[in-house]
Structures
1.
Amino acid sequence: MVETTLRQRKGKDQGKAAKKDHTNEELFSMFQEKMRSAMAEKVRSECAEDSTEKEIQAQIDENMAGLFGPKKKPLPGIKNETKAAKDALTADPYNIQKIFDCGEAYLLEEKYVEAANVMIRGWKRTGEIEKPEQRFVFLFQLCHASCACQKFKQAHAVLMDIEEPEDPDLFKDYCRLACKIYAQNDNLQKALKAFHNGLEKCASFDEALPLWLDTLSSLKKVGAYEAARSKVESMAVDDSDKQKLQVVETVRSMKAHLDEPVDESARTKVMIAVGSLALGVIVYCLYLLESSSLASLKLTK
């Protein structure tokens, strides 16, 4: 007992000494190195075999900026691909496929107002799209764009026209989006129901975490946070899972704070706080934050 107490005290003393030995700048630098190492491991595991070292490093830089950097506004103007899609639609303004293509091109540039304005023209014409999955993607993207430019009533109206997909992954995406739309329209019961429906399609705790990660802010807004969190926590099989849940929420909260306009000294303090988390759990969070089946819908770059 005495020996254990001494070890604990020694550990605390060492921790205090470490805090004295390192300046804020040094702690920040150490954290950045750990994060870059974790991100490098992730990128290398996912990149193509013929990727050059320069391409890999560029991807690491982009991912790091996207994960912990402040949210950047879309660049002015449009890319060549978007201009081509826009010109094609101008030449054939009633073509539903060209409406689809142009809206999607705007979405990829994160120009949500333009995407919503284009795709709303095809809202009531999705019956012309033969494949159910393509109809789903069109309306899903329109909902996504409407939410992004805070047209929540419009998003709700479009949601009412979406047929629930049979594909389990698409259904989870549908529930995720529906949960956020209902929450933004102050419908607690339907938001919670959509969340639970999505959760039922999750075969494990690890599958449930991305759903929770993406909806927790909306659920908190509508007053359903505690009920939803309790349901997710009930899926945890051990203390490690519960720790993941807590850390994911912490990282999400800190990332939201980093997206807000703050001075650099405040941002440094937040980054140092993130650095105090266990590296292994942070690596796990990186995978959650960077991975989503929405990529298959071309909603992410």
2.
Amino acid sequence: MTEPLTRSPHVRETHNQDGAVLLDPRRGKLYPLNPVAALIWKQVGEGFTPEQIANNVAIACSISLEVANGDVSEFLQLVVAEHLAFPHTTVKPVLSRPSWWRRLRDRNWLRFKGSSEVV
């Protein structure tokens, strides 16, 4: 995984001195996070790439980059597998406007178009 992840919009979170807890209300699951996992989760939300996150974790925790890469990779695979986050490439396009909006637009367009032909 080399690209940033996008958090799932339905996931809720709360932070405290012990880390964080994620709630997935759709699946009825809680995910307790230790302080390092909470740091990784925060950086996922800020749009960092896995490489940037691993660098930051290595510095923050005074560990080697190899260990940080492994830990970050494992965590990111978990959140993707649990549908808490997903790669940017799988982001769905914004839904189109509702059908009532299209009907209103079309009706006004026809009215406008019809009035210009009358003149």
3.
Amino acid sequence: MNSDYLDLDINEQMIKLGLKVLHYRKLRNLTQDELSEKSGVSTVVISRIENTTANMEVMTILKIAKALKVNPHKLFDFREID
């Protein structure tokens, strides 16, 4: 477990998440509109995530993960429970 990640507050986590979405979108040479079309997520939501004003669902998942003392990626690893 990466305890450094757990030490970040929710706002720092949101910033890192937004930067990662932006990074991978640019890496794949996609505009926000193209990512919206491919993902079925509105351009407004993508913009909010990239600009760290993300929706409450994302923030809620981060808060739950922090309370459980697990990295959020663990909640999305559907292979097994450890």
4.
Amino acid sequence: MPRAERAGASRPDQVSKAQDPRAAIRAFVRELAESGELDLTAEVRETEQRTVVQLFGAGRDILLERGAEGLVALDHILQRAFAHEVQPRRLVLECEGFREARDAALGARAKELADAVLADGRPRETEPLNSYERRLVHVALAEMPGVRTFSVGEGPDRRVTVAVRTPDDPPAAGQGNGGQQ
């Protein structure tokens, strides 16, 4: 097929995105895998609250190298391309339990920060986190006495600050952050 025709040819992820976002996500992962010569496929399932993209194949290993940089990048791309299409469900990418391990590590890190804040009274900040990760930190510390959390920064540099709760602070709004994300 001539280049001009290929450029105008419809791609599965673009054509069916609105009609069937699950099929479009599978097609997107398949195209990505083929272009990178990876053995990688995606299964997409829906629950009431989530659209879960589960990755399979030996190509997962490359995504998990160097602190899962590739997986985080793929998650970012999928969020940008498809999160709007699956609303109100949340789009979640799963690969060999990485998310569960990351969530647990983030909760443990939040508690370490809170302990340090309580020990010396100095506020601490997390590294930049996406909204889901910030929420995990807020929830992990919501019931911890003596600390409060709030988000600071803009865009991809948004972080959570953990600080000592003072008598002047508003009461915790169920998440220790006054509802801020």
